[in-house]
Structures are given as C-alpha cells and as structure tokens.
Amino acid sequence: MDATVCVGIDVSKDRLDVHVRPGGEAFHVPRDGEGLAALVERVGALSCGVVAVEATGGFETVVAAALAGAGLPVVVVNPAQIRHFAQALGKRAKTDPIDAAVIAHFAEATKPIVRPMPDEATRLLADLVARRRQIVAMIGAERQREKRAPARVRKSILRLVKALEKELASLDQDIGDSVRGSPAWRAKEDLLSSVPGVGPAIARTLIAELPELGRLDRRQVAALVGLAPFTRQSGQWRGRSFIGGGRAGVRSLLFMGAMVAIRHNPVLKAFRDRLVAAGKPRMVALIATARKLLTILNAILRTGQPWREEIA
Length: 312
Fold this sequence. Notes:
This protein has helices spanning 33-44, 60-69, 79-88, 96-110, 120-146, 151-180, 183-193, 200-209, 218-225, 248-264, 266-277, 282-303; strands spanning 6-11, 15-21, 26-30, 50-54, 74-77, 233-234, 237-238. By secondary structure, it is an alpha/beta fold. The protein has a 5-stranded mixed sheet. Strands 6-7 form a two-stranded antiparallel sheet.
C-alpha cells in the first residue's frame, strides 16, 4: 500500500466531492447507491494510505461505512480541525471541491490514525444512547422552565415532562435489551459496572461511544475522550493546563461517574482528597479523578478482570 496517497472527501446531502493527493485528481459522484459504488471502485484502485471523510451532520455515516466495508483505510475527521487547517493555509474561498482538497491536504499533513469503524449494531446503540442524552437534556430544560412558569403553563410543562419520561424509560429498555442481548456487550457492561461509581448508563455509553476502550494505552484513551491536559508555556511564562476536544458526551458521563465515585469508591475518594489537600482546585481534582476513572476502566477491559482496589 502506498501510504503517500491521501484522499479527501467532502460530503453534502446530494453529492460527494473527492480530491487525491499528491496527484491532484478531483471528481465528484452522487451520494446514492450508484455513486457510492463508483466511489469505492475508483478510490479502491488508488491503493491509498488514508481516505479522510469530513463529519457532516450524519451524512458521512453511509459513506464511511461503504468505504470501510470495502476494506479501505477510512477515517472520519473533525470539521473544526479542517476549518482551522484551511485558515492556516490562507484558504479564504470555500466550495465543495476546495473543501475536498483541504481535507486531503489535512490527511497528508497530519496522518490521522485509522481505526476500525463501528459495525451496524454499535452504530445503532450509539444512536440510541445519543437520543437518550437528548431526552435527558429536554427534561432538564422543561424542569427549569417549570420553576418560573405560571400555573396554566406549568400544567403543559408537566404533561410534556411526563411524556418525555415515558420515552426515556422506553429508550432505556431498548438500550438494555441491545446490550444484554449481545454476549460480548453483556460481558463488557458487567466488567465496567463492577467499578463503584459506574452504573448502567455510563457503562452503556462507553460501549456505544468509546469502542476503543481497552485497546489503547492510558494516554491515548485520555486524549480521545478529551481528558488529557494540554500544557501552555512560552519562555518563562507558564499558563494553566486545560482540557478540551475529544468526545464531549463521554467526557460528561465520566464527570458524573467521578462525582459519584468520590462518595462511594474509596480508592477514587482518597485520590481526589489527596489532590485537594495538596492545594489543587476542586475542579482540577475532579478532572483528574475522571481521568483516573477512565484509566481504571480502560485497564479493566484490557485485562478482562473486574474491579479490585489493588488494580487502581
């Protein structure tokens, strides 16, 4: 395989714009069954090192699945990174062919890691988990409105909350059936839930949205979730480290798990208390605890051994 050939694909609702580096070949195909077949045939003949597809509100899913199903080295790239890369190159014009060229250039310059794409069952579980998160957010928003609403409006809010809670229960049942119906997922859930502070919601979110858990080292998985601290330093100046990027939904759930763990998990409680006693701000201590929790969960899935205080 010639690792120097990189393909960038800009995805829109109706068509796919493709650019090949370093040759400069460019073409487009419709985003339908025939177009995808033609895309797979033409890209497959290039013996490329990476095929980069920009995430575009879900339109990229079927494209990435078709390419991965053909055994091509596909990676879905973050649109924010592409935008910043284009700005760094001084690219002010924006058209679909130009975007495809920028995506290909980005893949060539950064050499993103190609990871296995989730299978259909994992994608469905991820969709259910994402929908559950949306329902929870809607319930929270309605509860906030209820506090300042007049009596008549409050009745409407309560009816909607009741309907949302019913839908939430249905989604929880669907997610539970999916996880418990798969021996591999059931084993993962049991391992993850063995850690005090990790309940079914967190375990199932990790299974759906972080399938790499257990396959990476602790630094890689922390960076993937967005819990790895980034240092800021210039000359004698040292700024505060910060976290960001990664998979925000997973990170939020891990913060919740960390908050539960510092009350019910003696190892993580002691870890957090040591940081606070050493003068660390409470938020910094919470972030470190969430990262520690992620490291423990990663080790548990890698070894296949349930929670023991000694492994922490």
